[in-house]
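We store sequence with structure; for instance:
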Amino acid sequence: MSIRVQYVPILLHRGKIWLSELAVIVAMTLIVTVLVILVGVAATNERRIRNNSEAVATLRSAGIVAEHRLTELREKWIISTTLESFVRGRLPESTLFLLTELVYRNSRRYGYDPFLVLAVIHVESVFDPEALGRYRSGKFSGAFGLMQLKFETAQEVAADLGIPLLRKEDLFIPEINVALGTAYLTRLIARFES
Protein backbone atom coordinates (compact mmCIF):
# COMPACT_ATOMS: atom_id res chain seq x y z
CA MET A 1 0.00 0.00 0.00
CA SER A 2 1.39 3.28 -0.98
CA ILE A 3 0.51 6.68 0.35
CA ARG A 4 0.22 9.44 -2.14
CA VAL A 5 1.13 12.90 -1.03
CA GLN A 6 -0.35 15.76 -2.86
CA TYR A 7 1.58 18.95 -2.95
CA VAL A 8 0.05 22.38 -2.77
CA PRO A 9 0.94 24.04 -6.03
CA ILE A 10 1.73 27.45 -4.51
CA LEU A 11 4.35 25.96 -2.26
CA LEU A 12 5.91 23.78 -4.89
CA HIS A 13 7.81 24.82 -7.91
CA ARG A 14 8.67 21.90 -10.13
CA GLY A 15 8.12 19.56 -7.24
CA LYS A 16 10.24 21.51 -4.75
CA ILE A 17 9.45 24.13 -2.10
CA TRP A 18 11.37 27.26 -2.65
CA LEU A 19 13.11 28.52 0.42
CA SER A 20 12.11 32.14 -0.28
CA GLU A 21 8.41 31.18 -0.45
CA LEU A 22 8.70 29.32 2.84
CA ALA A 23 10.42 32.30 4.45
CA VAL A 24 7.66 34.64 3.22
CA ILE A 25 4.95 32.31 4.52
CA VAL A 26 6.62 32.01 7.94
CA ALA A 27 7.22 35.77 8.10
CA MET A 28 3.63 36.56 7.11
CA THR A 29 2.31 34.06 9.64
CA LEU A 30 4.44 35.66 12.36
CA ILE A 31 3.36 39.16 11.34
CA VAL A 32 -0.34 38.21 11.32
CA THR A 33 0.04 36.43 14.67
CA VAL A 34 1.79 39.44 16.21
CA LEU A 35 -0.87 41.79 14.80
CA VAL A 36 -3.68 39.63 16.19
CA ILE A 37 -1.96 39.57 19.60
CA LEU A 38 -1.41 43.36 19.50
CA VAL A 39 -5.04 44.00 18.54
CA GLY A 40 -6.13 41.74 21.42
CA VAL A 41 -3.83 43.51 23.87
CA ALA A 42 -4.99 46.92 22.61
CA ALA A 43 -8.66 45.92 22.98
CA THR A 44 -8.02 44.58 26.48
CA ASN A 45 -6.16 47.76 27.46
CA GLU A 46 -8.92 49.91 25.98
CA ARG A 47 -11.49 48.00 28.05
CA ARG A 48 -9.35 48.39 31.17
CA ILE A 49 -8.88 52.11 30.52
CA ARG A 50 -12.64 52.55 30.07
CA ASN A 51 -13.32 50.59 33.27
CA ASN A 52 -10.66 52.58 35.14
CA SER A 53 -12.06 55.86 33.81
CA GLU A 54 -15.52 54.87 35.02
CA ALA A 55 -14.06 53.85 38.39
CA VAL A 56 -12.18 57.15 38.67
CA ALA A 57 -15.34 59.09 37.78
CA THR A 58 -17.31 57.11 40.36
CA LEU A 59 -14.65 57.73 43.01
CA ARG A 60 -14.52 61.44 42.15
CA SER A 61 -18.29 61.80 42.46
CA ALA A 62 -18.24 59.79 45.70
CA GLY A 63 -15.45 62.07 46.94
CA ILE A 64 -17.47 65.16 46.06
CA VAL A 65 -20.52 63.76 47.83
CA ALA A 66 -18.40 62.86 50.87
CA GLU A 67 -16.84 66.32 50.88
CA HIS A 68 -20.27 67.98 50.77
CA ARG A 69 -21.51 65.69 53.54
CA LEU A 70 -18.43 66.48 55.65
CA THR A 71 -19.00 70.22 55.16
CA GLU A 72 -22.66 69.78 56.11
CA LEU A 73 -21.77 67.82 59.26
CA ARG A 74 -19.12 70.39 60.21
CA GLU A 75 -21.61 73.25 59.84
CA LYS A 76 -24.26 71.36 61.81
CA TRP A 77 -21.73 70.67 64.56
CA ILE A 78 -20.89 74.39 64.76
CA ILE A 79 -24.61 75.28 64.89
CA SER A 80 -25.20 72.61 67.53
CA THR A 81 -22.32 73.71 69.77
CA THR A 82 -23.41 77.34 69.44
CA LEU A 83 -26.97 76.39 70.38
CA GLU A 84 -25.69 74.34 73.31
CA SER A 85 -23.72 77.31 74.60
CA PHE A 86 -26.85 79.51 74.44
CA VAL A 87 -29.32 77.13 76.09
CA ARG A 88 -26.94 75.49 78.60
CA GLY A 89 -29.10 72.46 79.34
CA ARG A 90 -32.49 74.23 79.29
CA LEU A 91 -33.65 72.24 76.26
CA PRO A 92 -33.65 68.47 75.78
CA GLU A 93 -31.10 67.00 73.39
CA SER A 94 -33.85 66.05 70.93
CA THR A 95 -34.93 69.71 70.71
CA LEU A 96 -31.32 70.80 70.20
CA PHE A 97 -30.96 68.28 67.38
CA LEU A 98 -34.23 69.45 65.81
CA LEU A 99 -33.24 73.12 66.06
CA THR A 100 -29.83 72.37 64.54
CA GLU A 101 -31.49 70.66 61.57
CA LEU A 102 -34.07 73.44 61.16
CA VAL A 103 -31.53 76.25 61.31
CA TYR A 104 -29.20 74.48 58.89
CA ARG A 105 -31.90 73.53 56.38
CA ASN A 106 -33.64 76.91 56.36
CA SER A 107 -30.44 78.96 56.29
CA ARG A 108 -29.28 76.93 53.26
CA ARG A 109 -32.68 77.16 51.60
CA TYR A 110 -32.66 80.96 51.70
CA GLY A 111 -28.91 81.47 51.43
CA TYR A 112 -28.28 82.90 54.90
CA ASP A 113 -25.47 82.36 57.31
CA PRO A 114 -26.92 80.00 59.95
CA PHE A 115 -25.72 82.40 62.65
CA LEU A 116 -28.12 85.06 61.36
CA VAL A 117 -31.04 82.68 61.88
CA LEU A 118 -29.64 81.67 65.29
CA ALA A 119 -29.28 85.33 66.26
CA VAL A 120 -32.89 86.10 65.30
CA ILE A 121 -34.16 83.12 67.30
CA HIS A 122 -31.99 84.09 70.28
CA VAL A 123 -33.14 87.72 70.29
CA GLU A 124 -36.80 86.89 69.66
CA SER A 125 -37.38 83.90 71.96
CA VAL A 126 -34.12 82.91 73.67
CA PHE A 127 -34.64 79.51 71.98
CA ASP A 128 -37.95 78.84 73.71
CA PRO A 129 -40.27 77.12 71.20
CA GLU A 130 -43.30 78.12 73.30
CA ALA A 131 -42.37 81.77 73.78
CA LEU A 132 -45.15 84.34 73.77
CA GLY A 133 -44.19 87.86 72.75
CA ARG A 134 -44.69 90.69 75.20
CA TYR A 135 -44.43 94.42 74.84
CA ARG A 136 -42.29 96.31 77.34
CA SER A 137 -45.49 97.04 79.23
CA GLY A 138 -45.98 93.30 79.70
CA LYS A 139 -49.03 93.17 77.46
CA PHE A 140 -49.17 90.24 75.00
CA SER A 141 -47.85 91.32 71.58
CA GLY A 142 -49.44 88.53 69.58
CA ALA A 143 -46.14 86.91 68.54
CA PHE A 144 -45.59 83.17 68.92
CA GLY A 145 -42.75 80.66 69.01
CA LEU A 146 -39.05 80.66 68.23
CA MET A 147 -39.02 83.47 65.67
CA GLN A 148 -41.93 85.39 67.26
CA LEU A 149 -44.33 85.47 64.34
CA LYS A 150 -47.74 87.05 64.53
CA PHE A 151 -50.49 84.74 63.32
CA GLU A 152 -51.68 87.03 60.50
CA THR A 153 -48.13 87.44 59.17
CA ALA A 154 -47.52 83.70 59.45
CA GLN A 155 -50.73 83.00 57.50
CA GLU A 156 -49.59 85.24 54.62
CA VAL A 157 -46.16 83.61 54.44
CA ALA A 158 -47.65 80.12 54.80
CA ALA A 159 -50.03 80.79 51.91
CA ASP A 160 -47.09 81.87 49.73
CA LEU A 161 -45.19 78.68 50.63
CA GLY A 162 -48.19 76.37 50.39
CA ILE A 163 -47.96 75.36 54.06
CA PRO A 164 -51.31 74.75 55.76
CA LEU A 165 -51.50 76.89 58.89
CA LEU A 166 -54.72 76.12 60.72
CA ARG A 167 -54.34 77.54 64.21
CA LYS A 168 -52.18 79.92 66.22
CA GLU A 169 -50.82 76.94 68.16
CA ASP A 170 -49.14 75.71 64.94
CA LEU A 171 -46.62 78.50 65.46
CA PHE A 172 -45.31 76.64 68.52
CA ILE A 173 -44.20 73.80 66.23
CA PRO A 174 -40.49 74.54 65.61
CA GLU A 175 -40.50 73.18 62.03
CA ILE A 176 -43.34 75.49 61.02
CA ASN A 177 -42.11 78.50 62.97
CA VAL A 178 -38.52 78.42 61.69
CA ALA A 179 -39.60 77.74 58.08
CA LEU A 180 -42.11 80.61 58.11
CA GLY A 181 -39.81 82.88 60.14
CA THR A 182 -36.89 82.42 57.75
CA ALA A 183 -39.16 82.99 54.75
CA TYR A 184 -40.52 86.14 56.42
CA LEU A 185 -36.97 87.30 57.16
CA THR A 186 -36.23 86.89 53.43
CA ARG A 187 -39.29 88.98 52.59
CA LEU A 188 -38.17 91.76 54.98
CA ILE A 189 -34.60 91.79 53.67
CA ALA A 190 -35.89 92.01 50.08
CA ARG A 191 -38.36 94.75 50.97
CA PHE A 192 -35.91 96.92 52.89
CA GLU A 193 -32.86 95.88 50.81
CA SER A 194 -30.89 95.27 53.97
Strands lie at 12-13, 16-17, 132-134, 140-144, 149-150.
